[in-house]
């Protein structure tokens, strides 16, 4: 009997010690579900359904999954935006650095492709403006044009090439304006130069010169005391490749480039060395490819590019700043503006 009593007492003591010295259980930390609801252990709630003081403290210190800054394109914009052709191949890709500070420069690149996957256009940007090197390439990969930009405007040396890689045009821009008439070459390598005459040598009304292939390379006339000159370059086939109209030493009138098949490649109109009409580019089959609009002073404002199908592809503004750092970008099959879509997504 005594042994039984001692056993009961010992068991009671052990139970009491376990209760007294058991470790305290902390409530599970709060988290936020994808739907935005707080989740936690049932120990954070009282039997009445009200939150305990510790639970309320946990909510006060909780952080949202997506901050408001990540939805602000000026603070933190998507690192990559892509568009696609109807055939499913990528047509353009915009990549840029993540902005960490309010006054930090945002560097970016925009690459556009032919539907065969080869690069067509590649350009560097800073704070939404072209800044650095811009290149165009032919479908076979040969360079087409190389031009340096600063703060949205052509600035520095530039070159344009014939399809086989022979230099076509080379010159210098300064803050968006040509410093002088560029050097012009036919595909044979022959340079086309402005013809000038002394008063004693001047023809009475009209003069033409010819290149080695027998094609007209320079046309000269005079009206009201002003020299009117047209310089022309040619392909090896003899077809005209470009023409430049001048009065005196200044570009005045149409400037046109042509494809080897004779169709217009691009064209604009100059007044006193400044482009006064939009530069319009075309695909070899005729549909519009590109349009560059200029200000009254001849500097670039907006550039718009179209798919071969005629649908809008992308555009950017030379006046853009950090507040408009993402260009407008469209896939060929979609009317959705990827710029607007991108502004709603975090990296």
Would you kindly provide a written description of the structure presented here, covering whatever features stand out?
By secondary structure, the chain is mostly beta strands. The protein has a domain at 72-176 and 327-347: Outer Surface Protein A, domain 3 (Alpha-Beta Complex). The chain has three helices and 25 strands. The strands form three sheets. Strands 14, 15, 16, 17, 18, 19, 20, 21, 22, 23, 24 and 25 form a twelve-stranded antiparallel beta sheet that branches. Strands 3, 4, 5, 6, 7, 8, 9, 10, 11, 12 and 13 form an eleven-stranded antiparallel beta sheet that branches. Strand 5 and strand 6 form a beta hairpin. The chain starts with a helix and ends in a 5-residue tail after the last helix.
Rounded mean pLDDT score:
75
Number of strands: 25
Overall structural class, as computed from helix and strand content, comes to mainly beta
Element order: H for helix, E for strand: HEEHEEEEEEEEEEEEEEEEEEEEEEEH
Question: In DSSP terms, counting alpha (H) and pi (I) runs of 4 or more, how many helices?
Answer: 3
User: Which percent band covers the strand fraction?
Assistant: 35-45%
User: Gyration radius, to the nearest Å?
Assistant: 35 Å
CATH topology of the domain at 72-176 and 327-347: Outer Surface Protein A, domain 3
Stretches where pLDDT falls below 50 for ≥5 residues? 25-52, 54-77, 196-207, 342-347
Overall outline: globular
Distance between the termini: 77 Å
**CATH class of the domain at 72-176 and 327-347, please?**
Alpha Beta
Report on the biggest sheet: 12 strands, antiparallel
Helicity, as a percent range: under 10%
CATH architectural type of the domain at 72-176 and 327-347: Alpha-Beta Complex
